[in-house]
Amino acid sequence: MGALGHFLERQGIPTAGISLVREHTETVRPPRALWVTFELGRPLGIPDDPDFQRRVLRATAELLERTDGPLIADYPEEVAGEADFTGWACPINLAPTSVDSLLAEIDRLATWHDRAIAATGRTTVGVSGLDMPAAGRLLTQALEGELPPAQALKEAVDDLRAYYLEAASAFPDAGTPAMRKAWLWDETLFGKALLTVQPKLAASGDPQHRILGNLTLIPATERHRLAKG
Amino acid sequence: MVKRLSDMPEVEANHLRRIECPTYDDTPALAGKPLKERRVALISTAGLHKRGDRPFQPGDGSYRVIPAETPARDLVMSHISVNFDRTGFQQDHNVVFPIDRLRELAAEGVVGSMASVHYSFMGAFPPAAAEPHARHLAGLLKQDGADAALLVPV
Predict the structure, then answer these.
(1) What are the residue ranges spanned by the domains of chain B?
(2) d(CA B75, CA B138)
(3) Rounded to two decimals, what is the model's pTM?
(4) Is A162 in contact with B22 (Cβ distance < 8 A)?
(5) I need a labelling partner for A159 at 20 to 30 A (CA). Which of A132, A185, B17, B47 fits?
(6) Torsion angle of alpha carbons B110, B66, B68, B95, nearest 10°?
(7) Which of A22, A28, A41 is facing B85, going by the closest CB pair?
(8) Do the beta carbons of residue A209 and residue A150 sit within 8 Å?
Protein backbone atom coordinates (compact mmCIF):
# COMPACT_ATOMS: atom_id res chain seq x y z
CA MET A 1 0.00 0.00 0.00
CA GLY A 2 2.70 2.44 1.02
CA ALA A 3 4.54 1.86 -2.25
CA LEU A 4 1.58 3.32 -4.15
CA GLY A 5 1.96 6.52 -2.13
CA HIS A 6 5.50 6.92 -3.43
CA PHE A 7 4.54 6.01 -7.01
CA LEU A 8 1.54 8.35 -7.27
CA GLU A 9 3.02 11.28 -5.37
CA ARG A 10 6.08 11.18 -7.64
CA GLN A 11 3.70 11.47 -10.59
CA GLY A 12 2.09 14.57 -9.11
CA ILE A 13 -0.89 13.10 -7.24
CA PRO A 14 -0.89 13.96 -3.51
CA THR A 15 -1.71 10.90 -1.41
CA ALA A 16 -2.74 10.01 2.13
CA GLY A 17 -3.17 6.44 3.24
CA ILE A 18 -4.46 4.35 6.10
CA SER A 19 -1.86 2.15 7.81
CA LEU A 20 -2.93 -1.11 9.45
CA VAL A 21 0.58 -2.38 10.25
CA ARG A 22 2.67 0.41 11.69
CA GLU A 23 5.95 -1.50 11.39
CA HIS A 24 5.42 -1.90 7.64
CA THR A 25 4.61 1.79 7.20
CA GLU A 26 7.67 2.80 9.22
CA THR A 27 9.79 0.85 6.73
CA VAL A 28 8.09 1.95 3.50
CA ARG A 29 7.78 5.64 4.60
CA PRO A 30 4.98 6.79 2.28
CA PRO A 31 4.30 10.56 2.21
CA ARG A 32 1.30 10.56 4.63
CA ALA A 33 -0.20 7.77 6.69
CA LEU A 34 -2.86 7.50 9.37
CA TRP A 35 -2.13 4.55 11.62
CA VAL A 36 -5.20 2.75 12.94
CA THR A 37 -5.37 -0.15 15.39
CA PHE A 38 -8.20 -1.99 13.64
CA GLU A 39 -8.34 -5.61 12.60
CA LEU A 40 -6.77 -6.50 9.26
CA GLY A 41 -9.55 -6.47 6.68
CA ARG A 42 -11.38 -3.59 8.38
CA PRO A 43 -9.41 -0.42 7.57
CA LEU A 44 -12.38 1.85 8.35
CA GLY A 45 -12.91 0.13 11.68
CA ILE A 46 -16.53 -0.92 12.14
CA PRO A 47 -19.03 -2.27 9.55
CA ASP A 48 -22.38 -0.50 9.45
CA ASP A 49 -21.11 2.42 11.53
CA PRO A 50 -21.09 5.31 9.06
CA ASP A 51 -20.19 7.95 11.65
CA PHE A 52 -17.13 6.01 12.81
CA GLN A 53 -16.06 5.30 9.22
CA ARG A 54 -16.54 8.94 8.22
CA ARG A 55 -14.32 10.13 11.07
CA VAL A 56 -11.54 7.77 9.97
CA LEU A 57 -11.80 8.81 6.33
CA ARG A 58 -11.94 12.48 7.25
CA ALA A 59 -8.84 12.16 9.44
CA THR A 60 -7.07 10.49 6.51
CA ALA A 61 -8.15 13.19 4.06
CA GLU A 62 -7.10 15.99 6.40
CA LEU A 63 -3.51 14.73 6.23
CA LEU A 64 -3.48 15.83 2.58
CA GLU A 65 -2.97 19.42 3.67
CA ARG A 66 0.28 18.56 5.45
CA THR A 67 3.56 18.75 3.56
CA ASP A 68 5.87 17.64 6.38
CA GLY A 69 5.95 14.03 5.21
CA PRO A 70 6.87 11.29 5.38
CA LEU A 71 4.59 11.31 8.38
CA ILE A 72 2.59 8.79 10.39
CA ALA A 73 -0.29 10.19 12.43
CA ASP A 74 -1.91 8.05 15.14
CA TYR A 75 -5.68 7.70 14.90
CA PRO A 76 -7.06 8.11 18.44
CA GLU A 77 -10.15 5.87 18.33
CA GLU A 78 -10.03 2.13 18.88
CA VAL A 79 -12.45 -0.71 18.32
CA ALA A 80 -13.32 -2.79 21.35
CA GLY A 81 -12.32 -6.43 21.14
CA GLU A 82 -14.86 -9.20 20.71
CA ALA A 83 -16.40 -10.82 23.74
CA ASP A 84 -15.22 -14.27 24.70
CA PHE A 85 -17.23 -16.92 22.85
CA THR A 86 -16.29 -20.02 24.78
CA GLY A 87 -19.22 -22.38 24.69
CA TRP A 88 -20.90 -21.01 21.60
CA ALA A 89 -22.13 -23.72 19.28
CA CYS A 90 -23.63 -23.29 15.87
CA PRO A 91 -27.38 -23.52 16.40
CA ILE A 92 -27.98 -25.15 13.04
CA ASN A 93 -26.98 -28.77 12.89
CA LEU A 94 -24.46 -28.87 10.11
CA ALA A 95 -22.21 -31.41 11.74
CA PRO A 96 -20.98 -33.93 9.20
CA THR A 97 -22.29 -37.46 9.31
CA SER A 98 -20.69 -40.52 7.80
CA VAL A 99 -23.03 -40.47 4.81
CA ASP A 100 -22.90 -36.72 4.28
CA SER A 101 -21.09 -34.95 1.48
CA LEU A 102 -19.69 -31.53 0.75
CA LEU A 103 -22.34 -31.01 -1.91
CA ALA A 104 -25.12 -31.85 0.54
CA GLU A 105 -23.68 -29.40 3.04
CA ILE A 106 -23.51 -26.68 0.40
CA ASP A 107 -27.12 -27.39 -0.54
CA ARG A 108 -28.24 -27.23 3.09
CA LEU A 109 -26.79 -23.74 3.45
CA ALA A 110 -28.60 -22.32 0.42
CA THR A 111 -31.66 -21.20 2.34
CA TRP A 112 -29.47 -19.40 4.89
CA HIS A 113 -27.49 -17.74 2.16
CA ASP A 114 -30.75 -16.55 0.63
CA ARG A 115 -31.66 -15.06 4.01
CA ALA A 116 -28.30 -13.31 4.21
CA ILE A 117 -28.82 -11.74 0.78
CA ALA A 118 -32.30 -10.63 1.82
CA ALA A 119 -30.80 -8.95 4.90
CA THR A 120 -27.90 -7.12 3.25
CA GLY A 121 -29.17 -6.78 -0.31
CA ARG A 122 -25.96 -8.21 -1.68
CA THR A 123 -23.50 -11.06 -1.74
CA THR A 124 -19.74 -11.02 -2.22
CA VAL A 125 -19.90 -14.46 -3.86
CA GLY A 126 -19.17 -14.28 -7.57
CA VAL A 127 -15.45 -14.24 -8.29
CA SER A 128 -15.29 -17.66 -9.94
CA GLY A 129 -18.37 -17.35 -12.11
CA LEU A 130 -19.49 -20.76 -10.80
CA ASP A 131 -22.66 -21.49 -8.88
CA MET A 132 -22.01 -23.02 -5.48
CA PRO A 133 -22.76 -26.65 -6.43
CA ALA A 134 -20.29 -26.33 -9.31
CA ALA A 135 -17.70 -24.76 -7.00
CA GLY A 136 -18.26 -27.68 -4.62
CA ARG A 137 -17.82 -30.17 -7.45
CA LEU A 138 -14.53 -28.54 -8.41
CA LEU A 139 -13.25 -28.88 -4.84
CA THR A 140 -14.51 -32.48 -4.72
CA GLN A 141 -12.64 -33.19 -7.94
CA ALA A 142 -9.49 -31.73 -6.40
CA LEU A 143 -9.93 -34.07 -3.43
CA GLU A 144 -10.75 -37.21 -5.32
CA GLY A 145 -9.06 -36.92 -8.67
CA GLU A 146 -6.87 -34.59 -10.67
CA LEU A 147 -6.16 -31.12 -9.33
CA PRO A 148 -7.87 -28.40 -11.38
CA PRO A 149 -5.83 -25.31 -12.37
CA ALA A 150 -4.80 -23.40 -9.23
CA GLN A 151 -6.50 -20.13 -10.15
CA ALA A 152 -9.85 -21.82 -10.85
CA LEU A 153 -9.65 -23.75 -7.58
CA LYS A 154 -8.66 -20.61 -5.62
CA GLU A 155 -11.58 -18.62 -7.01
CA ALA A 156 -14.04 -21.45 -6.29
CA VAL A 157 -12.73 -21.80 -2.73
CA ASP A 158 -12.94 -18.05 -2.11
CA ASP A 159 -16.53 -18.05 -3.31
CA LEU A 160 -17.40 -21.03 -1.11
CA ARG A 161 -15.76 -19.39 1.89
CA ALA A 162 -17.79 -16.22 1.34
CA TYR A 163 -20.94 -18.31 0.81
CA TYR A 164 -20.47 -20.23 4.07
CA LEU A 165 -19.71 -17.16 6.16
CA GLU A 166 -22.51 -15.10 4.64
CA ALA A 167 -24.94 -17.98 5.18
CA ALA A 168 -23.83 -18.37 8.79
CA SER A 169 -24.44 -14.66 9.40
CA ALA A 170 -28.14 -15.37 8.82
CA PHE A 171 -28.41 -18.20 11.37
CA PRO A 172 -30.95 -17.47 14.13
CA ASP A 173 -28.16 -17.08 16.70
CA ALA A 174 -25.38 -16.00 14.41
CA GLY A 175 -22.76 -15.20 17.04
CA THR A 176 -19.78 -13.04 16.11
CA PRO A 177 -17.65 -13.19 12.94
CA ALA A 178 -14.91 -14.91 14.96
CA MET A 179 -17.38 -17.59 16.07
CA ARG A 180 -18.52 -18.15 12.52
CA LYS A 181 -14.96 -18.49 11.25
CA ALA A 182 -14.25 -20.99 14.02
CA TRP A 183 -17.39 -22.86 13.00
CA LEU A 184 -16.20 -23.05 9.40
CA TRP A 185 -12.93 -24.70 10.44
CA ASP A 186 -14.22 -26.77 13.37
CA GLU A 187 -17.49 -28.08 12.09
CA THR A 188 -17.91 -28.03 8.33
CA LEU A 189 -16.99 -30.51 5.64
CA PHE A 190 -15.80 -27.54 3.62
CA GLY A 191 -13.18 -26.68 6.24
CA LYS A 192 -12.17 -30.31 6.39
CA ALA A 193 -11.94 -30.44 2.57
CA LEU A 194 -9.53 -27.49 2.53
CA LEU A 195 -7.31 -29.13 5.14
CA THR A 196 -7.41 -32.40 3.19
CA VAL A 197 -6.57 -30.91 -0.19
CA GLN A 198 -3.69 -28.77 1.15
CA PRO A 199 -1.01 -31.54 1.22
CA LYS A 200 -1.98 -32.56 -2.29
CA LEU A 201 -1.48 -29.01 -3.55
CA ALA A 202 1.77 -28.60 -1.63
CA ALA A 203 3.13 -31.78 -3.24
CA SER A 204 2.08 -30.87 -6.79
CA GLY A 205 4.63 -30.38 -9.56
CA ASP A 206 2.79 -27.19 -10.59
CA PRO A 207 4.28 -24.13 -8.83
CA GLN A 208 0.87 -22.39 -8.86
CA HIS A 209 -0.59 -25.34 -6.95
CA ARG A 210 2.21 -25.06 -4.42
CA ILE A 211 1.60 -21.30 -3.93
CA LEU A 212 -2.06 -22.05 -3.29
CA GLY A 213 -1.34 -24.93 -0.94
CA ASN A 214 1.42 -23.24 1.02
CA LEU A 215 0.29 -19.61 1.11
CA THR A 216 -3.20 -18.75 -0.04
CA LEU A 217 -5.52 -21.57 1.01
CA ILE A 218 -5.27 -21.90 4.80
CA PRO A 219 -4.98 -18.75 6.95
CA ALA A 220 -1.85 -18.54 9.09
CA THR A 221 -4.06 -18.71 12.18
CA GLU A 222 -5.53 -22.06 11.09
CA ARG A 223 -2.41 -23.84 9.85
CA HIS A 224 -1.94 -25.55 13.20
CA ARG A 225 -4.84 -27.75 12.14
CA LEU A 226 -2.73 -29.20 9.34
CA ALA A 227 -0.23 -30.70 11.74
CA LYS A 228 -3.06 -32.60 13.40
CA GLY A 229 -3.66 -34.22 10.09
CA MET B 1 -7.84 -4.15 19.06
CA VAL B 2 -4.43 -4.43 17.46
CA LYS B 3 -1.48 -2.40 18.64
CA ARG B 4 2.05 -3.21 17.59
CA LEU B 5 3.10 -6.55 16.16
CA SER B 6 4.41 -7.42 19.61
CA ASP B 7 0.83 -7.21 20.93
CA MET B 8 -0.63 -9.52 18.27
CA PRO B 9 -1.10 -13.28 18.52
CA GLU B 10 2.25 -14.84 17.67
CA VAL B 11 1.10 -16.66 14.54
CA GLU B 12 -0.38 -13.53 12.98
CA ALA B 13 2.57 -11.35 14.00
CA ASN B 14 5.06 -13.81 12.54
CA HIS B 15 3.16 -13.90 9.28
CA LEU B 16 3.29 -10.09 9.07
CA ARG B 17 6.96 -9.99 10.02
CA ARG B 18 7.79 -12.28 7.12
CA ILE B 19 6.32 -9.85 4.58
CA GLU B 20 9.20 -8.03 2.98
CA CYS B 21 8.56 -4.31 2.72
CA PRO B 22 10.28 -2.27 0.03
CA THR B 23 12.24 0.85 0.94
CA TYR B 24 12.40 4.08 -1.04
CA ASP B 25 14.10 7.40 -0.89
CA ASP B 26 11.70 9.80 0.80
CA THR B 27 9.12 11.22 -1.55
CA PRO B 28 8.35 14.90 -0.88
CA ALA B 29 4.72 15.39 0.17
CA LEU B 30 3.26 17.70 -2.46
CA ALA B 31 1.48 20.90 -1.55
CA GLY B 32 -1.98 21.38 -2.99
CA LYS B 33 -5.26 23.21 -2.77
CA PRO B 34 -7.25 23.35 0.49
CA LEU B 35 -9.02 20.05 1.14
CA LYS B 36 -12.43 21.58 0.53
CA GLU B 37 -11.41 22.34 -3.04
CA ARG B 38 -9.87 19.00 -3.91
CA ARG B 39 -11.30 16.27 -6.09
CA VAL B 40 -10.54 13.00 -4.35
CA ALA B 41 -10.19 9.42 -5.62
CA LEU B 42 -10.20 6.23 -3.56
CA ILE B 43 -7.54 3.65 -4.25
CA SER B 44 -7.97 0.34 -2.48
CA THR B 45 -5.50 -2.52 -2.31
CA ALA B 46 -8.16 -5.02 -1.22
CA GLY B 47 -8.32 -6.84 -4.55
CA LEU B 48 -11.79 -5.45 -5.24
CA HIS B 49 -13.49 -5.41 -8.60
CA LYS B 50 -16.83 -5.55 -10.26
CA ARG B 51 -18.30 -9.03 -10.56
CA GLY B 52 -17.29 -10.29 -13.99
CA ASP B 53 -14.04 -8.32 -14.16
CA ARG B 54 -10.80 -10.30 -14.25
CA PRO B 55 -9.99 -11.69 -10.78
CA PHE B 56 -6.57 -10.91 -9.37
CA GLN B 57 -3.83 -13.53 -9.56
CA PRO B 58 -0.56 -14.04 -7.66
CA GLY B 59 1.99 -11.40 -8.67
CA ASP B 60 -0.67 -9.23 -10.28
CA GLY B 61 0.33 -5.55 -10.11
CA SER B 62 -2.51 -4.22 -12.24
CA TYR B 63 -5.62 -2.37 -11.10
CA ARG B 64 -9.33 -2.68 -11.66
CA VAL B 65 -11.67 0.22 -12.35
CA ILE B 66 -14.58 0.94 -10.01
CA PRO B 67 -16.82 3.76 -11.28
CA ALA B 68 -18.26 5.90 -8.47
CA GLU B 69 -21.80 4.78 -9.22
CA THR B 70 -20.97 1.04 -8.93
CA PRO B 71 -23.68 -0.56 -6.76
CA ALA B 72 -22.36 -2.33 -3.66
CA ARG B 73 -23.93 -5.57 -4.82
CA ASP B 74 -21.61 -5.60 -7.85
CA LEU B 75 -18.40 -5.54 -5.78
CA VAL B 76 -16.43 -8.71 -5.11
CA MET B 77 -12.96 -9.35 -3.69
CA SER B 78 -10.34 -11.67 -5.19
CA HIS B 79 -7.34 -10.80 -3.05
CA ILE B 80 -5.00 -13.80 -2.99
CA SER B 81 -4.30 -13.52 0.76
CA VAL B 82 -6.42 -15.39 3.29
CA ASN B 83 -4.80 -13.64 6.24
CA PHE B 84 -7.28 -10.85 6.85
CA ASP B 85 -10.93 -10.68 7.84
CA ARG B 86 -13.48 -10.68 5.02
CA THR B 87 -16.63 -10.79 7.11
CA GLY B 88 -16.52 -7.02 7.58
CA PHE B 89 -16.61 -6.53 3.81
CA GLN B 90 -19.38 -9.12 3.52
CA GLN B 91 -21.44 -7.13 6.00
CA ASP B 92 -20.65 -3.61 4.73
CA HIS B 93 -18.42 -2.76 1.76
CA ASN B 94 -17.69 0.67 3.25
CA VAL B 95 -15.52 -0.83 5.98
CA VAL B 96 -13.07 -1.67 3.16
CA PHE B 97 -14.05 0.67 0.33
CA PRO B 98 -15.58 3.80 1.90
CA ILE B 99 -17.17 5.14 -1.25
CA ASP B 100 -20.38 6.21 0.50
CA ARG B 101 -18.36 7.97 3.21
CA LEU B 102 -16.37 9.87 0.57
CA ARG B 103 -19.64 10.87 -1.09
CA GLU B 104 -20.85 12.22 2.26
CA LEU B 105 -17.63 14.15 2.87
CA ALA B 106 -18.05 15.75 -0.55
CA ALA B 107 -21.72 16.58 0.19
CA GLU B 108 -20.70 18.14 3.52
CA GLY B 109 -18.04 20.21 1.78
CA VAL B 110 -15.14 18.63 3.71
CA VAL B 111 -13.64 17.67 0.36
CA GLY B 112 -14.42 19.49 -2.85
CA SER B 113 -15.75 16.54 -4.85
CA MET B 114 -15.20 12.87 -5.52
CA ALA B 115 -13.58 11.49 -8.63
CA SER B 116 -15.86 9.82 -11.16
CA VAL B 117 -13.75 6.66 -11.16
CA HIS B 118 -11.98 4.82 -8.33
CA TYR B 119 -9.51 1.94 -8.39
CA SER B 120 -8.37 -1.20 -6.68
CA PHE B 121 -5.09 -3.03 -6.71
CA MET B 122 -4.43 -6.36 -4.99
CA GLY B 123 -2.03 -5.48 -2.20
CA ALA B 124 0.17 -8.58 -2.37
CA PHE B 125 1.77 -7.22 -5.53
CA PRO B 126 5.54 -7.09 -5.97
CA PRO B 127 6.14 -3.31 -6.06
CA ALA B 128 8.02 -3.50 -9.34
CA ALA B 129 4.96 -5.12 -10.94
CA ALA B 130 2.67 -2.32 -9.78
CA GLU B 131 4.84 0.71 -10.55
CA PRO B 132 4.13 0.97 -14.29
CA HIS B 133 0.41 0.56 -13.60
CA ALA B 134 0.57 3.26 -10.92
CA ARG B 135 2.31 5.64 -13.33
CA HIS B 136 -0.41 5.07 -15.87
CA LEU B 137 -3.04 5.48 -13.19
CA ALA B 138 -1.64 8.88 -12.17
CA GLY B 139 -2.36 10.10 -15.70
CA LEU B 140 -5.91 8.79 -15.57
CA LEU B 141 -6.50 10.50 -12.23
CA LYS B 142 -5.34 13.80 -13.67
CA GLN B 143 -7.64 13.36 -16.66
CA ASP B 144 -10.49 12.90 -14.20
CA GLY B 145 -9.46 16.15 -12.52
CA ALA B 146 -8.48 14.33 -9.32
CA ASP B 147 -5.85 16.12 -7.29
CA ALA B 148 -5.73 13.76 -4.30
CA ALA B 149 -5.86 10.02 -3.71
CA LEU B 150 -6.83 8.27 -0.49
CA LEU B 151 -5.08 4.92 -0.21
CA VAL B 152 -7.00 2.26 1.70
CA PRO B 153 -5.28 -1.03 2.55
CA VAL B 154 -6.92 -4.21 3.74
Answers:
(1) 35-152
(2) 23
(3) 0.93
(4) no
(5) B17
(6) -50
(7) A41
(8) yes
